[in-house]
Amino acid sequence: MNRELNEKLGEHIANLGYEDVVYFQGYETAFIGMTVIEDIPRAVYSYDKMIESLMAEDGMDYEEAIEWIDFNTIRALPYWGAHAPIVMYDDPDWEWFEDNEDRPDEVNEKNEGEKEKPENE
What we know:
- The chain is α+β, with helices and mostly antiparallel strands.
- It has one domain (3-115).
- Helices cover 43% and strands 14% of the residues.
- β1 and β2 (40-46) form a beta hairpin.
- α2 packs across α3 (62-73).
- The protein is globular and about 35 Å long.
């Protein structure tokens, strides 16, 4: 764990105006933001970035990192109560939205404009 990075994350969260936020120590690079659920501010982390963090900082391989997170972190979250951080599982199929006719018109117009740009830009 990088204590200095952890302290900076705590300061950052406090500067955002959140108090009494429970956040992970050791997954600072996986922090992606904050949310508020039923008036309780909660830190949000990327599962994929948590894996990357363990691989880079602790020398684990991909499977070891998944096993560590699932067993030692995810399973412990219910014991943290309502203030527990949220772990977001990244959606590898996020592109489903790209051609969705049900999305707002302004999003469709923006994407259509982007598709017309030459590849050189």
